Amino acid sequence: MAEQEHGRAHEATRHQNAQVHHHHRHAPVSRHEHGHHLLQVEDLSVSFRMYEEGAPFFKARQREVEMIEALSISVHAGEIVAVVGASGSGKTLLADTILGLFEPNATVRGRVWFDGEPMDAAALQRVRGHGISLVPQSVNHLDPLMKVGRQVEGFAHPDEPRRARRRRRERLFARYGLAEHVARRYPHELSGGMARRVLLCCALMDDPRVIVADEPTPGLDLDLAVRALDDFRSFADEGNGVLLITHDIELALRVADRVAVFKDGTVVEETAVASFASPDLLEHPFSRALWHALPEHGFLPGSPLDADGAVQLPGRSSLHCGARLVDDVSRVELQGGNGAGATCPNASEPSQGVGRREVRDRNADEGAGKGGSRA
Amino acid sequence: MLEARDVSFGYPGTKRLLYEGFDLLIGAEERVALGAPSGFGKTTLCRILAGYERPLAGEVLVDGAPLPKRGACPVQLILQHPEAAVDPRMRMEKTLAEAGEVSERLLDELGIRRAWLRRFPHELSGGELQRFCIARALAANPRYLVADEMSTMLDAVTQAQIWRFLVAETERCGIGLVFVSHSPALTERIATRVVDLAGVS
Hints:
The complex is a heterodimer of chains A (375) and B (201). With 375 residues, chain A is an alpha/beta fold. Chain A has 2 domains: 4-131 and 210-365, P-loop containing nucleotide triphosphate hydrolases (Rossmann fold); 141-207, no CATH class. In chain A, 24% of the residues lie in helices and 21% in strands. Chain A has helices at residues 2-12, 91-98, 121-127, 148-153, 162-175, 192-204, 222-237, 249-255, 285-293, and strands at residues 19-21, 24-26, 39-51, 62-75, 79-85, 106-114, 117-119, 132-135, 210-214, 241-245, 258-263, 266-272. In chain A, the strands form 3 sheets. Chain A has a 6-stranded mixed beta sheet with strand order 8-9-10-5-11-12, sandwiched between helices. In chain A, strands 4-3-6-7 form a 4-stranded antiparallel beta sheet. Chain A has a two-stranded antiparallel ribbon with strand order 1-2. In chain A, 51% of the residues are buried. Chain B is of the alpha/beta class and 201 residues long. Chain B contains 7 helices and 9 strands, in the order E-E-E-H-E-E-E-H-H-H-E-H-E-H-E-H. A 5-stranded parallel beta sheet of chain B has the order 6-7-8-3-9, sandwiched between helices. Chain B has a 4-stranded antiparallel beta sheet with strand order 2-1-4-5, with helices on one face. The longest helix of chain B has 18 residues, at 156-173. Chain B is globular and about 50 Å long.
């Protein structure tokens, strides 16, 4: 009861820019509708079972390789959170996890809430495309054997007939400067930028609450990229949330409200966009290295380098947001501990490895295909 | 000189010609940025220059000679989507070996960890894969390098590292560089000349 009242009081709270509050900073637009985050990921860790590299073939043992560790991130209603960070730090993996796409050899632990509901793997799958949509990183997510118009339209629902969906698709295409004849083309006939726009249309088709956009802008010229990001902005302004994973910090800063800096599988700093005005406002050395590496600020390849070319860190920062707005009792583990129970429910999915970018993505219309690259 | 002479190109099945009577001249000491709106045909031009597509008319010449039909091409292309540029069934070490011997120095400069060599492409991130593609292209001893939006997969720090390395390397070996980038700031940094395709043809 007290919890509920607390929630209501919280809802009324307005945040200042860069205000620190339950362990992360807030932007002015951050609000906690119904007293919770729109999307909250807490203590997430993802590891892969792999054979030892370099061991002789028959003697190689399996071991767990942690890719994401103790990661917490949240998206408020009405806000765009940009995730920037080192390549290979697990950003795409985070996107896949939120969409409930798990590799067969992955062990995923942690807690995810969507709109206040604790989610497990099956629930994440259910809301995929019907609440949380993905703009995938790889254009391989398009079905190579299906015309793109049909892919975007997807399947008609009883309450939304084919014709309505087609009109909707036509409006989206027009908005992104895709001519009508593009709808009759196959993915290989599109340029990189056109394919990117088609993926964007897929995600916007089904009125999601949260869009997870995994590098939506490469291949788009500045005009189109800005238009796409402006669309995310207006989408967020309607009370929805966007998790924008990108390398293009300049563009991200234009529209985002907060920035989460990713490094080696965890969030090292979650900060308001305003902090990117000057490196002095950034707390973590890696965030500062990112700032200095931008082509317009010196283009420095990062000073403290180790042999691997990665920036050395003095240990994990204490900055991740560990606050919970949801009652502890209702926590649901995404997946149990290690061992048999730890394999994913959808581990039976065909795939792995090799011919992975093929036709399985029948649900590409949900913007939730699986395949391609990982991080 | 890398020269596109009087090149015309259109994809089969379409009536529209992307390029008609197109000329481009690139010196070995130049770093040329190609600019045009999305869908104009930048990637197509890159593919023509590197011999992936044959022009309907006209020719691509390297130092006056057409691109060789066999052996490593003197114009190497780094693709926009690295996941489409590697064999998904081959471990990375074999992918690298496609270009012959790859020096340890190259691997170090590009920040390729030795542990990645035993992995399959799907076990690496987009940025990590792209480093392999760059290493492979450089190991083929090209005269010219065509980079089609190669750094969009990389974070700012890695992008700065790799571009700096690439600029130093191309200057050291006298490799001409043609690249496509949508970032004006990056183009400003790297390019010695900007070619606006929309204006040319």
